[in-house]
User: Which sequence fits this backbone?
């Protein structure tokens, strides 16, 4: 590729998070010319803050009852797609994505509603009853939980880096540090639309908005953007090899918090949810709350050294289902936004659905259509 600045592309994707990057790769794999434009650096948004859990069954607890089973099915399909994609990323780039189907264990922590949820997933044979003492201290008590063997996790930052490397290797383009400020759509759909930056412009035949919680700033429909910011704060603690060995599984899920053991001997506690908050400042009260909640899952966490705290802004949406669709106003515009708590999980399936929509105009599954808001 030449060093000349790009002025034209077939498809421009706005946003270099996990959604924009997996979609760019899916399009490139189908031989489409594609450019990702990222305001900051890849994974600088929610994708870089995510825990990386791939746990569709446990996420059901957070989804509205209507549509929950369908979302679960989409989540499970996407988890299966991760298996092949993660293997390909590692093989082609040498990056470790951290993908593992390590299993996830839910513990009720005395919350009846969550206990009912766990009993329900066991009754449906999505999980197995599991007894653990979490063998961690003097006062060991046996606890009943629900184990979902096939669920797992991935490392979102390394995965975004691997996606960017493979995209470029396959001839895709990526520009970082360039916020799109405005889009002008041609009235005539056959001529290109234009993306405007501070001192530059790029013409594209098709444009995809994958800019996460920033979606409302470039939204083009006649009704208000349904995506809203939801701040999430998380904590990383240090773990010794001996403590890691005592963990029954690497992922623990409770009613209001989760714990992930990351491969490099770190233990992640996540995450708060503040609807409407679009700032990434770290709140000490939130750290305390996370530790209190995590202690109910795993009593020894309060004794672990604190490594860091961070926050990210999720692209929230009321029904927890992303918008994966073409604009109702401009034929050249598409949306891949609103992945809320599950963008990492749903990325490969979203990329597949969007690529098929963009290239072959294949119908998008009803839960992801834009028309559900009109
Ligand atoms: C604490 C926390 C924990 C989470 N844990 C999980 C989890 O375990 N599993 C899971 O599946 N999901 C999880 N999530 C949710 C997940 O992170 C999001 O759903 C997902 O990252 C959304 O991806 P995205 O690419 O749409 O958005 P982002 O990652 O936010 O990417 C959007 C990108 O667009 C760029 N951008 C914005 N505006 C512009 C512009 N005008 N021009 C150019 N670029 C622009 C931004 O800089 C950003 O990089 C978690 C989120 C948080 C905050």
Assistant:
């Amino acid at each position: 590729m030449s060093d000349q600045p790009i002025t034209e592309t077939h498809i421009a994707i706005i946003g270099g998070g996990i959604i924009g990057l997996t979609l760019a790769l899916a399009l490139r794999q189908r031989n489409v010319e594609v450019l990702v434009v990222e305001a900051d650096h890849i994974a600088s948004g929610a994708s870089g803050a995510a825990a990386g859990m791939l746990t569709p069954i446990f996420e059901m607890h957070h989804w509205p009852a209507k549509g929950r089973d369908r979302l679960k099915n989409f989540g499970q399909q996407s988890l299966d797609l991760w298996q092949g994609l993660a293997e390909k990323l590692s093989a082609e780039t040498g990056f470790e994505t951290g993908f593992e189907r390590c299993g996830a264990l839910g513990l009720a922590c005395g919350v009846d509603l969550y206990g009912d949820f766990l009993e329900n997933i066991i009754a449906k044979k999505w999980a197995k009853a599991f007894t653990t003492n979490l063998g961690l201290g003097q006062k060991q008590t046996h606890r009943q939980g629900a184990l979902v063997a096939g669920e797992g996790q991935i490392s979102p930052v390394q995965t975004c880096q691997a996606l960017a490397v493979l995209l470029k290797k396959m001839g895709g383009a990526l520009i970082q540090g360039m916020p799109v400020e405005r889009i002008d759509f041609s009235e005539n759909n056959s001529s290109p639309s234009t993306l405007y930056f501070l001192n530059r412009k790029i013409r594209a035949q098709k444009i995809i908005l994958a800019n996460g919680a920033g979606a409302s700033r470039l939204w083009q429909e006649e009704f208000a953007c349904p995506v809203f910011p939801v701040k999430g704060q998380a904590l990383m603690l240090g773990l010794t090899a001996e403590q890691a060995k005592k963990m029954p599984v690497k992922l623990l899920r409770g009613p209001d918090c989760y714990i992930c053991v990351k491969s490099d001997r770190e233990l992640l506690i996540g995450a708060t949810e503040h609807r409407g908050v679009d700032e990434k400042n770290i709140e000490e009260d939130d750290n305390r709350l996370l530790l209190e909640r995590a202690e109910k899952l795993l009593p020894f966490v309060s004794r672990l050294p604190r490594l860091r705290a961070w926050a990210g802004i999720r692209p929230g949406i009321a029904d927890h289902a992303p918008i994966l669709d073409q604009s109702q106003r401009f034929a050249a515009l598409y949306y891949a936004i609103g992945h809320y708590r599950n963008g990492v999980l749903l990325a490969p399936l979203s990329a597949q659905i969007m690529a098929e929509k963009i290239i072959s105009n294949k119908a998008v599954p009803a839960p992801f259509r834009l028309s559900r808001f009109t």
